[in-house]
């Protein structure tokens, strides 16, 4: 257990706001409680485009690195003594780098990744979220333009409008005027404005573009005169300027809709060139204090910036590996509003549970290790639920003050990172220790990866995911699960669940594998066969899984066979 203390604690000091085109310095502090050898230290500043897609297997996170800056202040083995060791790295962010952005289809996320290479031991790693603000626009204002609903001017008695816009500045009022024509022949009732983003991401064959609304305004009309100037002022939200990379892009449009009585509405689409003020300009403007939902949004948005979470749809969220961390508010009846912190992740197969308000697992040694890391991080958090796919905490606070929201986010993140550290060090279950070498050999033979903590082997061959898992029930009884997931949906004629008695027809090649099997399950996604525990005799299970992969290939249309 003492070896777990040989990884240094990582801290990072960075500017609160990073601006493209400027230079910045990141200071890393490695805090060592005992002497630690380090082969190298690297610090990366990464800007990533993120979007989500859906398939029959669920929701998938897609990423594309847009900017990657690397600094290596330490490249030779060094023995770090007890205490703090500080290293500084300077980065020059490209002036055309896209800022942090969260849209309906596309997001841009920035983070610092620090890695200390520890010889003969898992590396010390940490990720810190960075906020990259838009680069302040130059003071040169574009030539004023007039937009018209018809480039040929008014036609007969048809609706017609001309519109001019002032400077488009993020977070400020957009001033403009509208003049309407043919008012005697058209019942103009309102002018509706909608701010729209046009976001482009890669798709299977080329690209995909979607439009998302970011706010709307309405100006009611009452018998406007011919070519009467109608002035409007629209308070724009904080938005980032347009950007474009080779595969991702963001642009802004203002949709102007003329609402007419007894006639089809007329719509103008106006491209916007969004500018941002410099820091000096922003501090010179005094905004009124927000109340209600607007104030809460500001509170939560600022708490997210301070703690590395993203704010969207009244929630704070961030990804940590394959896990999704979310903080939200929930009304609990007479108990009122409370803060909830939830982590969702792929099945760890550790038998995670809540025991007297603390996180524990099935195996005693694993449970002790998890407790030693996570118990000290429970202060201020009440664990309400724990299983192999979800953790839920509550905090007796309505979430209306930035300090309480930020403290909850920091505590939740600290607990999660302690839990992740424990996961990296978990030993095999006590009753499977002797079988570890055999399972390692099986993983190499199958071309998969072995998770020693759960004794599960997972991988993919010919685009067919497979798994060889050791599973335990609530009483601690083990079983073996073999699973393959063909690339195409399995025909309904093979779907079945069998555990005893006569079986329905099976895909060719499955029947010879069922000697000693406890159950079979086939659905649209996978073929699963359950066997008694095998101990160290894992080779028969490997042979069966190899045969199942061949069946999976035929079901995927990769060879002569059937659908």
Short description:
With 563 residues, this protein is mainly beta.
Explain what you see.
This protein is mainly β and 563 residues long. It folds into 4 domains: 2-130, Immunoglobulin-like, CATH 2.60.40; 146-280, Immunoglobulin-like; 288-425, Yope Regulator, Chain: A, CATH 3.30.1460; 430-555, Yope Regulator, Chain: A (2-Layer Sandwich), CATH 3.30.1460. Helices cover 15% and strands 43% of the residues. The chain has 6 helices and 34 strands. The chain has helices at residues 279-283, 292-307, 364-374, 402-425, 436-446, 539-555, and strands at residues 9-13, 23-32, 36-38, 40-55, 58-74, 78-80, 83-92, 101-102, 107-117, 124-130, 146-148, 160-165, 173-181, 187-202, 207-220, 229-235, 243-244, 249-261, 266-272, 310-312, 315-320, 323-331, 337-344, 353-355, 358-360, 382-387, 390-395, 449-451, 456-461, 464-472, 478-484, 496-498, 519-522, 527-531. The strands form 8 sheets. It has a 7-stranded antiparallel beta sheet, with helices on one face. The chain has a 6-stranded antiparallel beta sheet with strand order 20-21-22-23-27-26. Helix 2 (292-307) runs parallel beside helix 4 (402-425) and helix 3 (364-374) packs antiparallel against helix 4 (402-425). The radius of gyration is 30 Å and the shape is globular. The two termini are 53 Å apart. Residues 280-292 have low confidence and may be disordered.
């Amino acid at each position: 257990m003492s070896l777990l203390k040989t990884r240094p604690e990582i801290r990072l000091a960075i500017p609160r706001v990073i601006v493209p085109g400027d230079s910045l310095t990141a200071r890393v502090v490695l805090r060592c409680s005992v002497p630690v050898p380090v082969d190298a230290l690297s610090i990366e500043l990464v800007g990533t485009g993120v979007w989500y897609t859906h398939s029959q297997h669920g929701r998938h996170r897609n990423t594309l690195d847009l900017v990657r800056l690397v600094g290596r202040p330490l490249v030779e083995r060094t023995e770090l003594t007890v205490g703090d060791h500080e290293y500084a790295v300077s980065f020059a962010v490209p002036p055309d780098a896209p800022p942090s952005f969260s849209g309906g289809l596309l997001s841009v996320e920035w983070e610092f990744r620090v890695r200390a290479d520890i010889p003969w031991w898992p590396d010390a790693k940490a990720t810190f979220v960075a906020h990259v603000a838009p680069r302040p626009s130059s003071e040169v204002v574009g030539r004023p333009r007039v937009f018209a609903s018809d480039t040929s001017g008014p036609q007969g008695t048809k609706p017609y409008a001309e519109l001019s816009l002032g400077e488009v500045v993020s977070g400020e009022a957009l001033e403009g005027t509208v003049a309407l024509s043919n008012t005697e022949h058209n019942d103009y009732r309102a002018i509706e404005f909608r701010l729209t983003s046009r976001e482009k991401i890669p798709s299977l064959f080329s690209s995909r573009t979607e439009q998302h609304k970011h706010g709307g305004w309405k100006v009611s009309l009452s018998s406007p005169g011919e070519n009467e100037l109608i002035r409007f002022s629209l308070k724009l939200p904080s938005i980032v300027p347009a950007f474009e990379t080779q595969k991702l892009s963001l642009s802004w449009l203002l949709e102007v809709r003329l609402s007419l009585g007894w006639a089809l509405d007329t719509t103008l689409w106006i491209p916007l060139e969004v500018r941002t003020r410099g820091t000096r300009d922003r501090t010179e403007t005094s905004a009124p204090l927000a109340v209600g939902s607007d104030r809460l949004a500001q509170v939560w948005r600022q708490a997210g910036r301070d703690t590395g979470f993203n704010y969207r749809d009244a929630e704070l969220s961030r990804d940590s590996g394959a896990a999704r961390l979310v903080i939200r508010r929930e009304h609990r009846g007479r108990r009122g509003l409370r803060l909830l912190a939830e982590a969702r992740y792929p099945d760890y197969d550790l038998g995670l549970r809540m025991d007297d308000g603390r996180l524990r697992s099935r195996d005693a040694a694993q449970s002790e290790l998890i407790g030693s890391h996570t118990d000290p991080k429970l202060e201020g958090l009440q664990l309400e639920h724990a299983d192999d796919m979800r953790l839920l905490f509550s905090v007796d606070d309505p979430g209306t003050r930035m300090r309480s929201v930020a403290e909850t986010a920091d505590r939740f993140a600290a607990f999660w990172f302690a839990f992740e550290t424990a996961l990296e060090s978990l030993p095999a279950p006590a009753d499977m220790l002797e079988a570890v070498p055999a399972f390692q050999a099986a993983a190499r033979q199958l071309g998969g990866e072995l998770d020693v903590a759960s004794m599960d082997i997972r991988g993919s061959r010919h685009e067919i995911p497979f798994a060889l898992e050791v599973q335990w029930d609530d009483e601690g009884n083990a079983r073996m699960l073999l699973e393959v997931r063909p690339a195409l949906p399995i025909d309904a004629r093979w779907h079945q669940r069998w555990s005893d008695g006569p079986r329905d027809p099976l895909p060719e090649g499955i029947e010879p594998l069922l000697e000693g099997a406890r159950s079979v399950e086939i659905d649209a996604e996978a073929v699963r066969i359950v066997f008694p525990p095998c101990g160290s005799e894992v080779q028969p299970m490997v042979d069966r899984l190899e045969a199942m992969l061949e069946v999976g290939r035929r079901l995927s249309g990769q060879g002569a066979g059937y659908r």
